[in-house]
Design brief:
By secondary structure, the protein is α/β, with parallel strands linked by helices. The chain has one domain: TIM Barrel (Alpha-Beta Barrel). It has an 8-stranded mixed beta sheet with strand order 6-5-4-3-2-1-7-8. The longest helix is centred in the middle third of the chain and has 16 residues. It starts with a helix and ends in a 12-residue tail after the last helix. About 45% of the residues are buried.
Length: about 325
């Protein structure tokens, strides 16, 4: 049975099909030192969902046999996973070079026991993508918690000191999420605003800014329900459907993997336990995937997919148009 998103694709004559897989995105688990309002993972302190060493071994063996060029580590706070450093050093040792992305929560840099993070990331030339929903402290603290802004600024300054944001091999990119039930503005304009304000007030340099729409699932959906905004936000997403964004959707060239090794089309589907293929199909683990056969598997969609195709579009790499 078609959902509204499938119908929108059909009306716009924009089929959603996979392309060659370029990115393996691994969600290492829900453990995090923060409890952010917009978090689609429901991550936080004390969470027990975390990738185990045996699962890491299987994922690494599978990836090494493929031509997938990028490992994208997300969470939670990826650095809190016990095998975080082993994941990176092992992939760096593959015969064929792979790009590694760390979706960093910059406050972890200032937590006791994580003093190693900055130097380790720099040593292995890991690309950093860090949440920074605004250049104003009141907006950041409202979304991510009191004191998060100052701690993030400190973390970014430490990254700058070793060359992040200033060296082409040490890329530092920020992520902007709206702090309410509205769509991101122009990514290009926001990037310039950030560049000016971060440099002027904090001396911070960065390479790029990614605008990502808040998805109406998990913790953000609960926030919308409490404020009686869920229906209106969903309607905004549907009314803002932009067919031109479909070709750039991350589900087309990405395999998303959970901390248990299960395969999904994206991190949002993972949180909703929407497995790839058709409804009712069983679990599929990454080490059982034939990359070529996977290209023929249908992409699983839902109403939340309007979040990625609204306005300028939204992916892990920012706006799509």
């Amino acid at each position: 049975m078609q959902n509204d998103f499938d119908c929108a694709l059909e009306v716009a004559a924009t089929p959603l099909r996979r392309t060659q897989t370029e990115i393996l995105q691994l969600n290492v688990g829900k453990l995090c030192n923060l409890t952010c309002l917009h978090c689609h993972v429901n991550a936080g302190p004390g969470k027990k969902e975390i990738v185990g060493s045996e699962t890491v071994d299987k994922i690494l063996r599978w990836m090494e046999r493929t031509k997938i060029s990028t490992l994208d580590l997300t969470g939670g706070t990826p650095e809190m996973a016990p095998d975080f450093r082993r994941l990176i050093t092992t992939v760096r040792g593959f015969a064929h070079p792979r790009k590694i992305i760390d979706r960093l929560n910059a406050t972890i840099i200032n937590e006791p026991g994580y003093e190693w993070v900055v130097e380790f990331l720099a040593e292995h030339e890991v690309e950093v993508v860090a949440s920074m929903p605004c250049y104003r402290p009141d907006n950041v603290n409202a979304q991510r918690g009191e004191g998060v802004f100052d701690s993030s600024i400190s973390g970014f300054q430490k990254l700058n000191e070793v060359g992040y944001g200033r060296n082409s091999k040490l890329r530092l990119n920020f992520v902007y999420n709206p702090n309410g039930a509205f769509l991101p503005g122009s990514q290009e304009e926001l990037r310039e605003d950030y560049r000016r304000e971060m440099k002027l007030h904090f001396g911070i340099d960065f390479h790029d800014l990614y605008c990502i729409t808040n998805m109406p699932i998990a913790r953000f959906a609960a926030y919308l329900k409490r404020n009686n905004q869920l229906h209106s936000y969903m309607q905004l997403l549907k009314d803002s459907f932009n067919p031109a964004t479909v070709s750039g959707l991350m589900c087309r060239n990405t395999i998303n993997v959970s901390w248990t090794g299960e395969v999904y089309d994206c991190d949002f589907n993972q949180m909703m336990e929407l497995r790839p293929g058709r409804a009712g199909e069983g679990k599929l683990h990454i080490w059982d995937v034939d990359p070529e056969a996977f290209l023929e598997m249908p992409i699983r969609t839902g109403e939340h997919c309007f979040g990625c195709t609204a306005g300028h579009g939204s992916s892990c790499g920012g706006a799509l148009e």
